[in-house]
């Protein structure tokens, strides 16, 4: 999966592609879920505070929407960035199992569960060790940048009796 992400990253800065066709067929591959004409991108390529994630934008500004529907796949044992921001996430789990921290609680998640992340709420997704965790995530196109924990916030999260053992900073 990571090899695909590396190969496709070059396309990120290419000239915009022609409008996607109205129907783009789903392909379940060994390397993960894919759709025709949807580039596979590395999640936040510059970061070091996440592990083994790919992102595919399924719908968004190219379809004249004010929201984006993305598909993320977290590799086995991987996790997303721990962050908070003003914009909200609406998530539908599609494959795999794992856990998600939303605020001061950690929840088990499995296919077809829904997760809502309210504004300014710390959140982090983690895949179980034995399979990737794949989910759809709906966000506004016009959104603020995520905030990562500063030193004091990281210490408070580590000390939390509810999420201290879960967080990966
Ligand atoms: Mn987020």
Explain this structure.
Helix content is 10%, strand content 39%. The strands form three sheets. Strands 3-4-5-11-6-9 form a six-stranded antiparallel beta sheet. The chain is globular, with a radius of gyration of 16 Å. The protein has two helices and eleven strands, in the order H-E-E-E-E-E-E-E-E-E-E-E-H. The protein is mainly beta and 169 residues long. The structure holds manganese (II) ion. Manganese (II) ion is lined by residues 83, 85, 89, 123, 146.
Tell me briefly what this model is.
The protein is mainly beta and 169 residues long. The protein has two helices and eleven strands; from the N terminus they run H-E-E-E-E-E-E-E-E-E-E-E-H.
Query: How far is it from the N-terminal to the C-terminal residue, by CA?
Result: 23 Å
Q: What's the total helix number?
A: 2
Number of strands: 11
What is Rg?
A: 16 Å
Largest sheet: 6 strands, antiparallel
Structural class by helix and strand composition = mainly beta
N-to-C SSE string, H for helix and E for strand: HEEEEEEEEEEEH
Shape type: globular
Average pLDDT for all residues: 87
Bound molecules: manganese (II) ion
Main sheet: strand order: 3-4-5-11-6-9
- Share of helical residues: 10-25%
The percent range for strand residues is 35-45%
Low-pLDDT regions? 1-15
């Amino acid at each position: 999966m990571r090899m695909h992400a590396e190969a496709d990253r070059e396309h990120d800065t290419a000239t915009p592609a022609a409008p996607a066709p109205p129907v783009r067929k789903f392909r379940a591959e060994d390397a993960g879920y894919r759709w025709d004409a949807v580039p596979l991108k590395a999640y936040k390529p510059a970061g070091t505070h996440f592990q083994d994630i790919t992102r595919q934008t399924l719908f968004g500004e190219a379809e004249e929407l004010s929201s984006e529907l993305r598909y993320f796949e977290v590799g086995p044992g991987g996790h997303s960035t721990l962050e908070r921001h003003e914009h909200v996430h609406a998530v539908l789990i599609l494959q795999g199992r794992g856990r998600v921290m939303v605020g001061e609680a950690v929840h088990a998640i499995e296919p077809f569960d829904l997760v809502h992340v309210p504004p300014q709420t710390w959140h982090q997704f983690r895949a179980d060790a034995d399979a990737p965790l794949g989910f759809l995530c709906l966000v506004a196109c016009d959104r603020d940048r995520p905030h990562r924990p500063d030193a004091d916030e990281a210490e408070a999260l580590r000390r939390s009796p509810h999420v201290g053992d879960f967080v990966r900073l």
